[in-house]
Amino acid sequence: MFTWEDNFCSKRQDGRHLSSLAAIMSEVRNATPQLAYKSGLSREEFCLWQQRVKEKLRELMQFPAWTVQPEPVCLSTEPRDGYRLEKWEFYPDSFSAVPVLMLIPAEASAHHPAPGVLCFPGSAHSKELLAGEAGFSHPNCTNRRSFPERNAQALHIVRAGMVAVAFDNPGTAELAEFNPPDKETQWATRETLVNGLINSGYNYLGWSVFQKLRFLEWFRELPYIDSSRLGCSGHSLGSEVEMVLGLLCDEIKVMVHNDFLCDPQVRYAAVTNREKTTDGGIWHYVPGFWRWFGFSDLLAAAAPKFLTINEGGADEFTSKVRDAYQVMGAPERFQVVYYPKFSEEASRKNRHTTIPRENLSESEFYEDYSYVDVPDHSFRPEPSLRWLKKGFGMLE
Fold this sequence. Notes:
By secondary structure, the chain is α/β, with parallel strands linked by helices. The chain has one domain (about 5-390): Rossmann fold (3-Layer(aba) Sandwich), CATH 3.40.50. About 35% of the residues lie in helices and about 15% in strands. The chain has 14 helices and eleven strands. The strands form two sheets. Strands 1-2-3-5-4-6-7-9-10 form a nine-stranded mixed sheet, with helices on both faces. Strand 1 and strand 2 form a beta hairpin. The radius of gyration is 21 Å and the shape is globular. It starts with a helix and ends in a 5-residue tail after the last helix.
């Protein structure tokens, strides 16, 4: 068991640490990101800051070079109730073949183009889970996992009259080795993937976002797609892709952030009382990211796009985003939805306070300050569809 007092609180008069881990945690705890959002900006100042954030974020993503590649290929088409399911394969670079599932409502056509939404799953969830394909069989995906109906985000979206595209996360599901020993999370093979990416000058998040940007170049030109109404929706790990893609791609109008909002460096420093020090997978790592901003800064920079945060977050983070939308004159385009357990304001006991930067347990950080009901973590269809429809002008 690690604790603040035993492991991370300096007992020296000079405040230094013999522990290397305690030393870097102390530095992170006392650092302010160089492009952190600051309240009180004018609209002009906000736009200048927003542009700086986008430029630095694009630099940190370390995208591969844009190269001419073959057109995507349709592998199969199958009818479904009210829509058709198409499997496509596209080629973002000279070495990759990336399959996706496209769910296309029956009414979508060149005469009646529909909005398009890119859907990104949590961790090792498959695109087939997003599409609600119960009969799917693959050696990497043997478990339906929790909340399969809720997590079928692409299915919910196509039933609402939008074209939905379901992706796998890199190194998972159909994008993993055919039969790795850890089938459900591809943990070890994903670590090997990240090793290759980072040591080649890339990173996992940038690699993933790059693939979606390349796909969008083709997708937005399809005759049945209304390219003026594009959105992205991400759950858990997929929310990182949604956040970066939504900020960097001006054509994205609506962002569904299906996770709680948290600056990862704050969690890193604050949660000192824990059994293990693992941080949920090295695929979350973007070298240099914390030096410049946190996730709350990126979502603040998304203003005035339509944005829903579906699983809450600490007030210090959500209020930052809300302030940015006020600056841009679009408070009605932003909403925060909390877990049912914390839907009543009285249940959120540390409102309007700053998260302590040390001496918290995981349960204190998640439940007492971030309002996260960990066992209930899933895609939220109702607020997601409502916000997509609002952003696309589909509300009756």
